[in-house]
Amino acid sequence: MLQVDVDKSLGETAISVAFATRGRVTALFGPSGSGKTSVVNMVAGLLTPDRGRIAIGDDVLFDSERRVCVPVHRRRIGYVFQEGRLLPHLSVRSNLAFGRWMNGLRRDADEERRVVEMLGIGGLLRRRPLTLSGGERQRVAIGRALLLRPRLLLLDEPLASLDEARKAEILPYLERLRDEAGTPMIYVSHAEAEVRRLADEVVRLAAGRVVGTRI
Ligand SMILES: Nc1ncnc2c1ncn2[C@@H]1O[C@H](COP(=O)(O)OP(=O)(O)OP(=O)(O)O)[C@@H](O)[C@H]1O
């Protein structure tokens, strides 16, 4: 179970969000500026809450009272950004290997094959990111994150930069990830149709607060 209870003041905006979820895919759903990215950044460890607690099961990642703040690279959390953020000078294969190398993990050919097959990126391994479509790039970014064997995968509007055809292409892969990978996901989106299709739990945000658990 992921438990989040955080307060953070960001300029004019005050974020005060608490929720707990056991979902396979938990959507953080809400309008632009409602605090979705700030919340996932706090879970990832990229943004430090002013107060609160974040835990996965019994493992505490942040606790302001007990002065616990586990650094980003020790959280074992995968993060897929809106625009993928692949390394342009490396092939797809090297991009996939790079995350594991950076995190001191050995290559694992079986795991690589499984992830490559699940995301349908076997035909792209020699290509460079700039030669890929937006949807293909996002599938590679998801593969790179999964190969870190994260205990939680954060996806921040992974389809936002794609047109409708590309979205339709990648959604089945996300469903497969949900059904086969066994890695819980936090899925940030303001797109109702995506959330209805993918999420089994919803945390609805507005103006930095939780305002509901339905779309
Ligand atoms: N470093 C910062 N300094 C000041 N204000 C900030 C900072 N970071 C975020 N904010 C503000 O906090 C609010 C929440 O931002 P956040 O990016 O978390 O929202 P969001 O729901 O993810 O929006 P979007 O869907 O547009 O990405 C916004 O009003 C934003 O301008």
UniProtKB/TrEMBL annotation:
Entry annotated with the keyword Nucleotide-binding: yes
Pfam families documented for this protein: ABC_tran (PF00005)
A GO molecular function held by the record: molybdate ion transmembrane transporter activity
Keyword tRNA processing: no
Gene Ontology cellular component annotations, sorted alphabetically: membrane
InterPro entries documented for this protein: AAA+_ATPase (IPR003593), ABC_transporter-like_ATP-bd (IPR003439), ABC_transporter-like_CS (IPR017871), ModC_ABC_ATP-bd (IPR011868), Molybdenum_import_ModC (IPR050334), P-loop_NTPase (IPR027417)
Family: Belongs to the ABC transporter superfamily.
Matches recorded under PANTHER family: ABC TRANSPORTER I FAMILY MEMBER 10
UniProtKB keywords: ATP-binding, Nucleotide-binding
The protein's name in its UniProt record: Molybdenum ABC transporter ATP-binding protein
Annotated gene: modC
Domain ABC transporter stretches: 1-215
